[in-house]
Write a structure and sequence with these properties.
single chain, mainly beta, Methylamine Dehydrogenase, Chain H, 5-stranded mixed β-sheet, 4-stranded antiparallel β-sheet, 5 helices, 41% strand, globular
């Protein structure tokens, strides 16, 4: 056990130093990536979009769609490849391994994890492995969500469990080769696992994960279980019991040992976590889906962590439903998407305790994910939240859009209609480049 722990610590320290060496020269990569990952230097060539299949549209299957985004290419702004995975799995999030050779993509309903080779031919990702025993291997975790790169490892957050399909869940660790390692259950009132409960909640819910290696911590947020995220959005909103089944916590973990240290109260379902990049910036941001707050998670002078609401997003009474967020590489801007009004908002976070909205733009009838380039000049947007939560009829626009940010406004560059091209519902994006593999 000691040997295993020592090896893990050495791997983390070595890869952390390597990652930091890459960061200053990375001019294109997404800012929400793991600090352990190899970074893109220069212009990204491709965007990979994990896409939900729609019955009766094209082949009806979930797929990894590749779009050429290099402005010097003859195929700029066009779909150049599509790799279907078979069936509809509630395609949701994806993430690269630390060496960036493979892209892992999860299905929230089928609990399958699809592994794509993106290095042999970056223009044409190929499905090379499917993990279909995630639930049994993990000991009952359901809903693989964030796939997060650690040195030689993939750490996966769950959203639910197979016993009651509620929100109690765990983290699951795999090797880069797709071999199961261990499961780490979220702390709860009946099993705090020696974590310090700083408020009134210890609900055991999970959602996103991010790490600050220099502080030896990682953070997890919380959402809701299978019984809610697979339910029709309107029906769920009108069900008082369902609305009680949302997470109200974030957990601070020891990165090296994977042990929970603190449980922070963050009422209102905190979703994505984005950590600051500055060497002296020991803080991260999240947003709450139900209460429309920007949350600052910061280290205190005592060395522990605290969470506080520092700004409202739109009019919280309207429930704009904050979804994805993206932090700029200089830690000065936070982009916040709100699903219901289809808007993106830019907040000045140069003072992290007092974010100020400086810009907003309507992207579509609905908007979900945003991916910002490292140089801050390009922002990509996609539309789908969940198959049963997306809007209906004409409001259900499905797209990938690219905008250029000139410091004052977003200028649209291209717009791909995923329904028109019979691809499905565009969910999450990841960047690819030939330069990563010497091609």
């Amino acid at each position: 056990m000691k040997t295993k722990l020592l090896r893990r610590c050495c791997q983390l320290m070595t890869l952390s130093m390597t990652a930091l060496l890459f960061q200053p020269v990375a001019s294109a990569d997404e800012t929400c990536m793991s600090p352990y990952m190899v970074k893109i230097v220069g212009q990204e060539d491709f965007v990979y979009i994990w896409t939900l299949g729609v019955e009766g549209l094209g082949d009806g299957q979930d797929k990894m769609v590749t779009v050429d985004v290099n402005p010097t290419s003859a195929n700029y702004g066009k779909v150049i490849n599509s790799e279907s995975v078979g069936g509809r799995n509630e395609a949701h999030h994806s993430g690269f391994t630390d060496d960036r050779k493979y892209l892992w993509a999860g299905g929230l309903d089928s609990n399958k994890i699809f592994i794509f080779d993106v290095h042999t031919n970056p223009a044409k990702p190929k499905l090379v492995k499917t993990i279909d025993d995630f639930v049994s291997k993990s000991g009952g975790v359901v809903g693989p969500h964030t796939t997060y790169a650690l040195p030689g490892r993939m750490l996966i957050t769950g959203l639910s469990n197979h016993k009651d399909h509620g929100g109690r869940t765990a983290l699951v660790e795999y090797t880069n080769q797709g071999e199961y390692i261990d499961t780490y259950w979220m702390p709860t009132d009946d099993n705090l696992q020696q974590a310090i409960k700083t408020g009134k909640y210890a609900d055991g819910y999970g959602y996103d994960i991010r790490a600050l290696p220099r502080r030896n911590v990682m953070f997890t947020s919380s959402f809701t279980g299978w019984s809610n995220y697979m339910k029709d959005f309107g029906e769920m909103l009108s069900d008082p019991q369902a609305m009680k089944r949302f997470g109200n916590t974030m957990v601070v973990w020891d990165l090296h040992t994977r042990k929970p240290k603190q449980i922070l109260d963050v009422p209102g379902a905190p979703l994505e976590i984005r950590c600051a990049w500055g060497a002296e910036h020991n803080y991260c941001f999240s947003t709450t889906a139900l209460t429309s707050q920007i949350v600052l998670i910061e280290e205190t002078p005592k060395g522990d962590w605290q969470a506080s609401n520092v700004a409202s997003i739109g009019n919280p009474a309207d429930i704009p439903l904050p979804v994805d967020i993206s932090i700029s590489s200089d830690d000065n801007l936070l982009w916040v998407n709100t699903f219901m009004d289809g808007k993106t908002r830019a907040f000045d976070i140069s003072d992290p305790h007092q974010p100020k909205q400086i810009y907003e733009k309507k992207i579509g009838s609905q908007v979900n994910m945003v991916s910002s380039s490292w140089d801050g000049k390009r922002l990509y947007y996609t539309s789908s939240l969940l198959a049963n939560w997306d809007k209906k009829a004409s409001d259900n626009d499905q797209y990938l859009k690219l905008y250029h940010w000139n410091g004052k406004a977003l200028i649209e560059q291209f717009n791909i209609d995923f329904y028109q091209q019979k691809l499905g519902r565009a969910h999450q994006m990841r960047f690819g480049a030939y330069s990563l593999y010497g091609k």
